[in-house]
């Protein structure tokens, strides 16, 4: 249990620094955009309504974003660039970050312990398990990229 608590605590500090830093970077980027040539575009009524909605309702999105893969950074950056007030942002950061740290600490430690035992007791099986895992990840990535790529169009003239 001590191992999980130590890992969760370490991951919690890391996620607070990383997500808080992303929020601060978003805040600075938004402030810079408001002083740039884009200031006119981002002061439209539609943009301001969107900004107010994010400021008011964005905290639950930030908290839930920690349970997703790949959306955390975007949610934290947007919360910063749209000037979400700190009293709304910080509770979402603390709760979402805690959930993220606990999930990764428990499942992460469990996975590493299983793989460690597998390698110690049956090295060939451990290597095979890692190879299958890597091939599966590569296959999923390739499949997604091919589905996202536009279909190729053959522009060569047809022979009659």
Would you kindly provide a written description of the structure presented here, covering whatever features stand out?
This protein is an all-alpha fold and 160 residues long. Helices cover 79% and strands 0% of the residues. The protein is built from five helices and no strands. It has helices at residues 2-34, 45-65, 72-81, 86-121, 123-148. α1 (2-34) packs across α4 (86-121) and α2 (45-65) runs antiparallel to α3. The protein is flat, with a radius of gyration of 22 Å.
User: In angstroms, what separates the terminal alpha carbons?
Assistant: 75 Å
Question: The biggest beta sheet, please?
Answer: none
Computed CA radius of gyration, to the nearest angstrom: 22 Å
* Mean pLDDT rating: 86
Indicate the low-confidence ranges by residue numbers. none
> Helix/strand-derived class?
mainly alpha
Bin the strand percentage.
under 5%
Number of strands: 0
* Number of helices, where a helix is a run of at least 4 consecutive DSSP H or I residues: 5
**Proportion in helices:** over 70%
The succession of helices and strands, N to C, reads HHHHH
What would you call the shape? flat
Keywords:
5 helices; mainly alpha
Topology of this structure?
Layout: H1 2-34, H2 45-65, H3 72-81, H4 86-121, H5 123-148
